[in-house]
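Collaborator request, handled under Task 6.
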Amino acid sequence: MRKAFFFFAILASLHSKGQLLFNQYYTGANQDLYDVRMVNTTTGYASGNKGLIAKTQDGGTTWSPLNTGTNKAIWQTASAPADTIGTTFYAVTDLSLIMKTTDGGSSFQFLTIGLPAGSFLTGVQCLDNNYVYACGSNGTNGVFIRSTDGGLNWQIININRPLFINKISFTDSLNGYAAASDNTTSTGTIYKTTDGGYTWSLVHTVGKLMVSCMAIDANNCIAVGLGGNILVTKDGGANWVNKSNYTNDIYGIKKLNATKFYACGGAILDSTFIYTSADAGETWKKEYIGYKGRLSQLSFNTAGRLFCSGQNGIVLRSAWGTAVPTIQQQTNLMLYPNPAKNVLHIGGLDDINGSCYTVFSLDGRVVKNGTLLSNQLSIADLNTGIYLLQIKTPRSDKRILQRFQVL
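Structure tokens returned to the collaborator:
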């Protein structure tokens, strides 16, 4: 596998209300990414402009571009939820075709589905090995296609409105939502189906384009889009409430579990934020991650690590699994000398004795932990390098973080 170019991207400053720590990894091609998808702890795919699909087999540290056979943008890939190996998956592109691989990307088939020239597909979802749904435009109007036999045969359902259907999200073979853009009015629209995509009903219109959606069940869905919109319905699409106070464009949304949701977005050369919700989308918090550029999509590996697809071939990976609590800034915490060789002194905390400490490597591994009995921490057993020290004091649940270097 081609050696990846690794960027050290630990935060230079901490967000005043907390932080998410990310490292940046290069996929091997200087193209903007539109999607990232992890299928297990180690294997994942990132797709983007100019026919790019890059594959990782070591948890995102190194990536290798695959030979896709096209130079068209690849907007999304998808495999069956039960597929934890990642051998078979589909990809949608700026073509009137769907790509499929059954060998983990070593080769691709281009499936003819009967769309006219000028069509393009931007969203795809696999419900299982047989049911595959995709969406996009037939060049004029919105289009939805479906296969119930693993891509051998396809049905085309045209939605007779001038739409781009950007993304779809189904909870089962019948019930799904679509985030779309109306070409004539430049507004965002949300559609719903209850019959597997044969008919679609317009359930909401908003002034900004809608980019993605996440259906939780037939009644509950969250749709995100430009202008910071995070729209939530709890009654099957009859009513939608904007739960966001933000204005930054949002492109992707995923859930870690039943209550913990994440969204991402940003703009070219602008500070990027991850949006987090701990109450199933009711309230959201903006987390600064120290990256400038647009983030298009998120994915979690099976260990709970968060991955984001960025610009110029960059994939961001959280330094820890997302189960680790948000770390709080402590401005008076001092580590000295820094760099240090054998002993690190800790100052600025009144209740240091009895505090729990954890030392992390930059890739998120725990290399040392224990209880502090004084303001000194022995680091003689650590190799030369840069580490993160996390401290939890006895009188607080907050976790305090500082970076230090071992000589």
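The cover message to the collaborator said: "The two ends are 31 Å apart (CA to CA). DSSP finds no helices and 36 strands in the chain. Please let us know whether this matches your experimental observations."
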